[in-house]
Specification:
97 residues, mainly alpha, 72% helix, rod-shaped
Length: 97
């Protein structure tokens, strides 16, 4: 009975080969690291959000002009447009719920 014959070298070579291969894969994963790719559309959307954030919440010039026209008595709202807006808002609320 042979204990240290040629038959024992094959499994050792296979083990060392697999170990070296696993080490190479681990090293490759360390060098690559995690990467995130953000789509072009998402970047554009973010830039639009930044532009919107820079806009003032109240348009001071428009508010001042409306105040002035109300004080002068020259403000003449269009009743038909106001009524149409109210009706369309009411109709939109009913169709959503």
């Amino acid at each position: 009975m042979k204990i240290n014959g040629l038959g024992g070298i094959g499994p050792i070579k296979a083990y060392t080969f697999q170990t070296k291969k696993d080490q190479a894969v681990q090293q490759e994963q360390k060098t690559l690291g995690d990467k995130v790719k953000i789509p072009k559309e998402a970047m554009e959307f973010k830039s639009y959000l930044n532009l919107i954030d820079k806009l003032p919440a109240v348009r001071e010039a428009l508010v001042a002009a409306l105040k002035q026209s109300i004080q002068d008595g020259s403000y003449q709202p269009e009743c038909e447009k106001i009524a149409a807006g109210i009706i369309s808002d009411r109709y939109a609320d009913k169709t959503i719920s």
